[in-house]
Amino acid sequence: MDPATVALRAGWSGLSFLFGMWNCMPTTNRTRRPQGTPGHTGTSKAADSFGAPGQSHPAAQPWAGLADGAWQKLLALAVVLLCLSGCARPEPTLVVVVGGLGLSQLGDLRHAVIDQCPQAKVVSAGAWDGYKADITGIATAKPHDHIILVGHSLGCPAIAQAAEQLPKVDLAVFIDPAWDDFRLPRGVERYLWYQRTGFGLEREAHIVGAARTSTIEGGHNAIPHAPELIAGVVRAINSISISGGRKAETDHRQRATRNGRPLAAGSRDGANGS
User: Fold this and answer.
1) What's the pTM?
2) How sure is the predictor about 243, in pLDDT bands with cuts at 50, 70 and 90?
3) Residue 20 shares a structural domain with residue 97
4) Which structural domain, as residue segments, surrounds residue 183?
């Protein structure tokens, strides 16, 4: 069941419960009465209700005549409105971009996704040391139809670790993962793996259970800015956020590439490579 349906059903259940409470609330005829003249001792019921003879009634506040039950009903209505506001449809697609050590190199990619992926909400894990952020917390802060994680360098193992804690990740983009090897999480339905061609001090990490998808001309911090890479990521995100993407294949590991060409997002075993 999709998150929107769950939220809608929960909202209706809460609404029915509150209306049931509303109908059971007792109402009273007790009202606030204006005070009498100064010096009134409160011993006369007539004076309590109408003031001293010859005195005009002081102006009553507009809410002074509401019964206690009416106040309870107004409070219940406020709660109902708050419940309904929480039943809004989840945002379609969340894209979390996670940089590596130091200054993030994903600025160009992030802006391209913002400009060219209208159904996606883009969140940066941080401009500095983004891989240290609470990526799982960012991804679960609000309900979304689709979750997409994009990592560069140390951000790649960071998004893989976050994906292990999420029920499903529609797309994971690994851009030149660095240092320690890690395993492709089972919850990742589609992935893209980009690697550099140039020499770098950063060790090229291997993703266990995945195959190399594409190489991009340039160094470790250059390829995230490459137009070819950015265009490929934008296409993959739009294929999910706009058209819903293709179904993931039943085999959970991608074994090979087709003729050295990049595999399409949405395939874990290379059967839908393009």
Assistant:
1) 0.61
2) low
3) no
4) 92-241
